[in-house]
Amino acid sequence: MSEGRLSFRGGAPRPAPDRPTTILVIDDHPIVTQGVRRLAETAGIRTVHEAADIVSGYRLFHRHRPDLVVADLSFRDDGLSGLSLIRRIRALDAQARILVFSMHADPVLVSRALESGALGFVLKDAGPDAFLEAFDAVSAGRGYLPHALATDVAMLNRSARPAPLATLSSRELQILSLMSQGKSYEAIASAMAVSYRTVINASSSMRKKLGVESRAALVQIAVNRRATLR
């Protein structure tokens, strides 16, 4: 979005027969969290839990088991840690219903979010009606993608020559995102709670997939892609 382009205005709730009673919003921008809360309350949601990072988000999910999770993909210095959060929540509860609410329109990231376990994906520059449409679909256990994103993801998957980043795993995308911030391998391992060797191996794998021979060249790709990955 821009964090505040969604217009949250009061008014009578839009009719919807099966909306959840509890949701969890995980986003590190207070204006987004407040906006989603207002829209959810207008839609008749009784309880809205909020978290500003993936650790507290996971803990709140574990404690309250909300009917629906609305989560971003990017969290300040943790890169695309929302992808790992989605996987952790789905590992805890295979029936968890997760809607990604993100400013990322890159079909690679959308595809990875769905592969990680999200049921739907809606952009932060969408209007309230689009958000509620996504909200209702995921609440009912249906998938949701805006038409343009669905087309881009379909073309990505059907392409004989996929985009270079499409060959990377979710973990590799997160490591690349952290590399774009200038983090060392040690810092990346600490941020992701994985071993140093795991990061080294992932870096080697990415160099092969992206056709570069050095860490410096990989970092340059990360920096060039930072507008998409951050």
From TrEMBL:
Pfam families: GerE, Response_reg. Gene3D superfamilies: 3.40.50.2300. Residues 1-20 are annotated as: Disordered. SUPFAM superfamilies: C-terminal effector domain of the bipartite response regulators, CheY-like. Residues 161-226 form the HTH luxR-type domain. The keyword Cytoplasm does not apply. This is Response regulator. It comes from Methylorubrum zatmanii.
